[in-house]
């Protein structure tokens, strides 16, 4: 037995406590005059009630109505409504402090005890006193109604306990047990010594004042506590009452005492700072719970639960004195649990619940069993009983016969031990009181103690066959029983339960308020803190952990996501999860089936695992609603998915702006039609260059100034004229003048200035722009007003806007952007999904979304089979089918010509304009010696290759390439050099109507803000290379590997000639090199494989190995899917089933299209039936490796290798100094300075 503290509060001295009958609430009345309402399950203060003047000693909840009663030292009894949060009336009548107040269980009565030596009974409906019980000659400390009979007990400092008969009062007030009658006169309630309540017994026996008295809920017994430090039991009948016995043990005044509602126990507390539990039959003390510094004043029991509360000097403690968690264990589809001294079995498949055997009697008045461990091989059980005293901890070993039922006794052996659990078919581990762990056999004979355990063990947990988890102060250690070593450890404080998933891959560590999910190596995956106690849990088939707290069923995913499944009124203990049903036990050890909604965590799991088909189906079915899922999607970076759940237009508008969906945002804005919404939409549309929506937004907000400027920059002169008329109609002089300025209408400007009274400015405008008639008129006006005529500047220039070359009707062009993982599916475009950036350079985060492949609708239908066929020979029964004499060919078509699939290229990606310099004829005129060309200064001002190439200094550029990236063959750079040189200058062949003056060169400058060291604009941009990369992706998808290699090398050789100005762009350039390297190396390997001979078994084996290596390049997801499908086809035909199954699992992780996934799952089932490999290959997928780009062999981790100094391609040792086969320009293994393309200074 132990004191299980559930909640503690800190406050002034607590003098009264009352539990709510159904809700997890407790009221405390304080010596400070405040009443507090606490939620002891959530550990929060709900409300304060402060109207009493002085200490409040009596408090009580009503059993049915939303009211409670309090009594204080201000002589007042107050009745409160906790829903209305106020006092609804006050009862006056007592002449001194009120000690206790209680409601009657059945009648609308309140009983109160007071220091005025009386007990009063009140009717709270009629709000008057109906009886006054007099007879005590000292303070009455306590008075209570009997739970069922017409009796009242009172305790007084006159050293007596009195039992009163109130049957006369009940007959008078409640005739027939019905509605109370009105009293016959006002004097009736105020009479002293009235016959309505008479003293039945006076119990004398205490030597000092009696502080508390309580009835037993069923038997005719009383218990009382006194200042003589004794707890006395009294028995009564119709004629007499007598003392049964005394319980001695308290060292100071006994403050409060009561009977346990469900057991034959007495609880008492005292000013000696202790709570004692007494055996009601033997009248002996079973346990003492001590509090260090606080005296106890009051004790209360919950009317239906095993819950108690005690008030002390500094607050209150809510506690239990025995565990209510049933002992249980689960094996496959069976759950075993203990109930009513029986071991029972529940079958989840049939819901059949039967008794297995009887159990030996355990210690009285306590939950007999702590844990249960089942051995299915021997049909044996280990049942552990725990006590706060280690000496009293025991375990029972039961051997259950096959024909045993609930009435038969099982063979049992009892031994001492803190914990016992099975570790093998015929071995179990025991933790003894000395904290040593030993192994025992089925006869309970100790075989040996476990050695090499260097710490004191507090508990042990199951961890699979031959493994146990050892709990110590620091956390848990995974101990191998056979090898006698600790294989893993984790820091997790005060773990109470460990629950393994079915595959033993994950474990949940349950502490008091913490849930920790770990993997088999005890690496922490996620941790979840709870405000209430974590009770139990179980893993479902998708490795989601469902667990219960005091008031919720929740879930936790190994990625760290968690949420609430549903709320609970009372705690449940989860046995197992089967689909959408939880099998649980309640505190009475009764099986309960709880239906749950799994949509929330299934959706998150599909999102985390990128199971696109499942996500889309859930989105379409719209089973998920609420702000929580919307917030989750927004937090995880999927606002486009959140749009599908949102009905609220404001939320929908915000999400649409976040994911850049202007069409949805426009629809929402039209429905909302608010100024702030239109302004936000206008800003977002302006960023995207959608001037049509910008125009609509400005029109709706009547932002005429911005609207006029928009028409000006888009060249819409007609609408500008309309805006000028609108400004005139609105008498908006500023707008009218500005719009006239945009239009170039000088006459209109003169009118505006004249109309505003700005005659001088109007005269200047007219005179300057040649409007002589208007100027003369205005001059006359100025002279008539005797104003000075402003002088006209002879050098003044006409202020006229340039005429628009063309009217911009379409929206501004945007760069093609990569779709997110789910965009295509959600927008109804079908097809696969794009992955993230293909490769990550060391230490560089993926930076450019534009480098992700934009996938086409159909990526698997090549005419010439460039990616291999998908004819997996699996029959209807799931068995593999092979044709006679079929070799293990790689599944590649015999026709090795480039062709692939007929894929429509959605993107019209233009190549970089290859503008050269004009080669016009030279002028025959003799000209002076030309000054040095501007470009001649560029090599001196910059160390970037692009600037040297633009200046025409190719030699220095090649030297820089040799120093920075190890170039030894510059010939492939020729085309790129010429393009950069040609696009760094513009030529003009004459001015206006003059004759040809020869070519004039203009050099666009990128750093024109600086005063010196000007440098040229370079035409090669990351955005253009990203477009070319998309074209390369399309060629790869279509199986045109030769063309793709040419395009990829062109991109790779363009990167050293970039000029970028931020670290982000440097990272993107390095990422682009990594992507092109991976694709070039992969495609070179695949072309080599297709060209290799396939005549002998050794050739076929080598071909299959190359197909496997092809799957390990870091390509885009859609291309990795294609490589895996080709490899699966090859290995399936060669009956390499284990490798084939592994490849299938890797492919399914990439979330292919539903039809592909279904086909691959079918292959996986067939492969796992015969999970062996027919041949030994040079391929170990579990050992990380890279591929030699020349010999095409794996270079496993730790093996010496060398790399290309530019592209980073890997090569076998011994190839240093040779030309790289991937980039074809740089030296293998050379030490270089590294890529230099940034204008940033270190």
Automatic annotation (TrEMBL):
SUPFAM superfamilies: DPP6 N-terminal domain-like (SSF82171), WD40 repeat-like (SSF50978). InterPro entries: Beta-prop_COPA/B_2nd, Coatomer_alpha_WD-assoc_reg, Coatomer_asu, Coatomer_asu_C, Coatomer_complex_subunit, TPR_COPA_B, WD40/YVTN_repeat-like_dom_sf, WD40_PAC1. CDD domains: Coatomer_WDAD_alpha, WD40. The keyword Cytoplasm applies. It is a peripheral membrane protein. Residues 852-1241 form the Coatomer alpha subunit C-terminal domain. Residues 860-929 are annotated as: Disordered. Residues 860-886, 893-926 have a biased composition (Acidic residues). WD repeats lie at residues 7-41, 49-90, 91-132, 133-167, 203-244, 247-288. The coatomer is a cytosolic protein complex that binds to dilysine motifs and reversibly associates with Golgi non-clathrin-coated vesicles, which further mediate biosynthetic protein transport from the ER, via the Golgi up to the trans Golgi network. This is Coatomer subunit alpha.
């Amino acid at each position: 037995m132990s004191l299980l503290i559930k909640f503690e509060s800190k406050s002034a001295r607590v003098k009264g406590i009352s539990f709510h009958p159904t809700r997890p609430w407790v009221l405390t009345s304080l010596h400070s005059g405040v009443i507090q309402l606490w939620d002891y399950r959530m550990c929060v203060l709900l409300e304060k009630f402060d109207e009493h003047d002085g200490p409040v000693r009596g408090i009580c909840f009503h059993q049915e109505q939303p009211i409670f009663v309090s009594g204080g030292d201000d002589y007042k009894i107050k009745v409160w409504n906790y829903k209305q949060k106020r006092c609804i009336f006050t009862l006056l009548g007592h002449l001194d402090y009120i000690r206790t107040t209680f409601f009657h269980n059945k009648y609308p009565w309140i009983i109160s005890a007071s220091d005025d030596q009386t007990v009063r009974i009140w009717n709270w409906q009629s709000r008057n006193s109906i009886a006054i019980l007099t007879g005590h000659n000292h303070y009455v400390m306590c008075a209570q109604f009997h739970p069922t009979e017409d009796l009242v007990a009172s305790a007084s400092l006159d050293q007596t306990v009195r039992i009163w008969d109130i049957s006369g009062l009940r007959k008078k007030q409640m005739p027939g047990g019905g509605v109370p009658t009105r009293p016959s006169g006002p004097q009736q309630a105020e009479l002293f010594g009235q016959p309505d309540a008479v003293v039945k017994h006076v119990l004398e026996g205490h030597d000092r004042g009696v502080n508390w008295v309580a009835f037993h809920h069923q038997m005719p017994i009383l218990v009382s506590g006194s200042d003589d430090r004794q707890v006395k039991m009294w028995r009564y009948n119709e004629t007499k009452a007598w003392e049964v016995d005394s319980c001695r043990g308290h060292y100071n005044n006994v403050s409060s005492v009561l009977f346990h509602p469900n057991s034959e126990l007495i609880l008492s507390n005292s000013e000696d700072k202790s709570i004692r539990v007494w055996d009601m039959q033997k009248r002996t003390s079973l346990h003492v719970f001590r509090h260090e510094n606080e005296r106890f004043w009051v004790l209360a029991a919950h009317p239906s639960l095993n819950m108690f509360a005690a008030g002390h000097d500094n607050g209150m403690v809510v506690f239990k004195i025995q565990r209510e968690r049933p002992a249980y264990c689960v094996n496959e589809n069976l759950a075993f649990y203990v109930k009513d001294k029986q071991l029972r079995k529940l079958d989840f498949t049939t819901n059949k619940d039967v008794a297995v055997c009887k159990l030996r009697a355990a210690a009285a008045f306590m939950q007999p069993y702590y844990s249960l461990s089942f051995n299915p091989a021997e049909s044996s059980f280990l049942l552990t009983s725990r006590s706060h005293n280690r000496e009293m901890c025991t375990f029972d070993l039961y051997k259950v016969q096959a024909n045993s039922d609930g009435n038969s006794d099982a063979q049992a052996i009892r031994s001492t031990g803190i914990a016992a659990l099975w570790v093998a078919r015929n071995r179990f581990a025991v933790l003894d009181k000395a904290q040593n762990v030993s192994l025992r056999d089925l006869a309970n004979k100790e075989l040996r103690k476990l050695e090499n355990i260097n710490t004191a063990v507090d508990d042990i947990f199951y961890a699979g066959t031959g493994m146990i988890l050892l709990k110590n102060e620091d956390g848990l250690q995974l101990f191998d029983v056979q090898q006698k070593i600790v294989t893993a450890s984790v820091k997790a404080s005060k773990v109470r339960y460990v629950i393994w998933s079915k595959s033993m891959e994950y474990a949940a560590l349950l502490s008091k308020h913490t849930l920790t999910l770990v993997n088999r190596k005890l690496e922490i995956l996620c941790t979840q803190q709870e405000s209430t106690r974590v009770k139990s849990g179980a893993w479902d088939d998708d490795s989601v952990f469902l667990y219960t707290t005091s008031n919720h069923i929740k879930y936790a995913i190994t990625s760290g996501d968690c949420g609430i499944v549903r709320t609970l009124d009372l705690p449940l203990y989860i046995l197992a999860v089967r689909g959408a049903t939880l099998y649980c036990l309640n505190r009475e050890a009764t099986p309960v089936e709880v239906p749950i909604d799994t949509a929330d965590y299934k959706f998150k799991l599909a999102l985390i695992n990128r199971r696109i088909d499942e996500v889309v189906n859930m989105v379409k079915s719209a089973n998920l609603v609420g702000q929580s899922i919307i917030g989750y999607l927004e937090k995880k970076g999927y606002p486009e998915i959140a749009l599908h759940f949102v009905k609220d237009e404001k939320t929908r508008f915000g999400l649409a702006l976040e994911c850049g969906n202007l069409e949805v945002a426009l629809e929402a804005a039209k429905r909302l039609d608010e100024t702030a919404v239109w302004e936000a939409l206008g800003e977002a549309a302006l960023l995207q260059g959608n001037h049509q929506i910008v125009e609509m937004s400005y029109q709706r907000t009547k932002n005429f100034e911005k609207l006029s400027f928009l028409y000006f920059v888009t060249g819409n002169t007609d609408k500008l004229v309309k805006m000028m008329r609108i400004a005139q109609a609105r008498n908006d002089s500023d707008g009218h003048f500005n719009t006239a300025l945009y239009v170039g209408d000088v006459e209109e400007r003169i009118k505006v200035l004249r109309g505003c009274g700005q005659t001088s400015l109007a005269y200047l405008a007219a005179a300057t722009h040649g409007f002589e008639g208007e100027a003369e008129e205005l001059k006359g006006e100025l002279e008539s007003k005797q104003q000075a005529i402003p002088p006209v500047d002879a050098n003044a220039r006409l202020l006229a806007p340039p005429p628009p070359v063309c009217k911009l009707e379409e929206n501004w062009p945007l760069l093609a952007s990569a779709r997110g993982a789910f965009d295509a599916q959600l927008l109804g475009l079908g097809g696969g999904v794009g992955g993230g950036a293909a490769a990550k350079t060391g230490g560089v985060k993926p930076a450019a979304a534009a480098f992700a492949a934009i996938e086409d609708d159909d990526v698997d239908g090549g005419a010439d089979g460039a990616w291999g066929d998908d004819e997996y020979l699996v029959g209807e029964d799931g068995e593999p089918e092979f044709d006679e004499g079929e070799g293990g060919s790689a599944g590649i078509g015999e026709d090795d010509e480039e062709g692939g699939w007929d894929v429509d290229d959605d993107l019209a990606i233009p190549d970089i304009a290859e503008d050269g310099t004009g080669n016009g004829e030279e002028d025959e005129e003799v000209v002076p010696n030309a000054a040095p060309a501007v470009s001649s200064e560029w090599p001196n001002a910059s160390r970037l290759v692009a600037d040297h190439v633009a200046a025409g200094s190719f030699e220095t550029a090649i030297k820089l390439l040799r120093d920075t990236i190890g170039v030894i063959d510059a010939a492939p750079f020729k085309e790129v050099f010429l393009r950069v040189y040609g696009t760094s200058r513009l030529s003009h062949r004459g001015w206006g109507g003059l004759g040809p003056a020869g070519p004039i060169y203009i050099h666009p400058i990128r750093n024109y803000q600086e005063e010196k060291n000007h440098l040229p604009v370079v035409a090669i941009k990351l955005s253009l290379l990203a477009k070319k990369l998309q074209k390369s992706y399309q060629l790869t998808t279509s199986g045109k590997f030769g063309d793709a290699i040419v395009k990829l090398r062109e991109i790779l050789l363009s990167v050293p000639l970039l000029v970028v100005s931020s670290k982000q762009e440097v990272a993107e350039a390095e990422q682009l090199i990594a992507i092109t390297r991976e694709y070039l190396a992969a495609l070179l390997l695949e072309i080599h494989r297709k060209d290799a001979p396939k005549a002998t078994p050794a050739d076929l084996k080598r071909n299959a190995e190359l197909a496997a290596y092809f799957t390990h390049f870091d390509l885009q997801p859609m291309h990795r899917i294609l490589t895996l499908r080709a490899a699966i086809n090859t290995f399936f035909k060669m009956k390499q089933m284990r490798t084939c199954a592994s490849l299938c699992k890797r492919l399914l992780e990439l979330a292919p299209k539903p039809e592909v996934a279904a086909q691959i799952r079918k292959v996986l089932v067939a492969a796992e039936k015969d999970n062996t490999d027919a041949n030994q290959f040079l391929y170990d997928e579990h050992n990380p490796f890279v591929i030699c780009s020349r010999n095409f062999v794996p270079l496993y981790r730790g093996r010496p290798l060398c790399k290309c100094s530019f592209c980073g391609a890997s090569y076998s040792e011994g190839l240093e100094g040779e030309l790289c086969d991937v980039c074809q320009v740089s030296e293998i293994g050379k030490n270089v300075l590294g890529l230099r393309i940034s204008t940033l200074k270190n």
